[in-house]
Amino acid sequence: MTFEIRVGQGVDVHAFVVEDGADEGASGRSLHLACLEWPGETPLEGHSDADVAAHAACDALLSASGLGELGSVFGTSDPRWAGASGAAMLGETLRLLTGAGWRIGNVAIQVIGERPRMSGRREEAAAALSAALDGATVSLGATTTDKLGFLGRTEGLAAIATALVIRD
Fold first, then answer.
1. Which of 119, 163, 124, 126 is nearest to 142 (CA)?
2. Average pLDDT for residues 87-100, to the nearest whole number?
3. Rounded distance, CA 25 to CA 17, Å?
4. Whole-angstrom Cα distance, residue 156 to residue 42?
């Protein structure tokens, strides 16, 4: 049996909403990260829900399969994706991959930022990401930048993902 294996990488970065001293959440948004809502945390700016973990995973999967990249598939000019959840974007990415004959081997995601602290919800988040990809294996980690740069100053969040796809 012959099969093709490919690896792709994806990156996503979003700034936290700046609310000029207003209470967190005054923008009407909430923080969505790794297909979970994080009550009490400052939300991220974005056309969709700005879920950096889900977006990086989409980008890695699209890259690995040769089906484009996040901006070409979920562009800000397409009103269908305005306010869309990371889970919906992962579901659409899976639909595109499956339609092109690919299946997911695994996805590994690293979230980078000072907050929120993910350790207490890491397994829940990995399970939510996996569910959005119809049970595909997803591993999730998090790190800080030791207070360096815009991520260390808590101006936003970033995520890096690597995905393995297989075609029989």
1. 119
2. 97
3. 9
4. 9
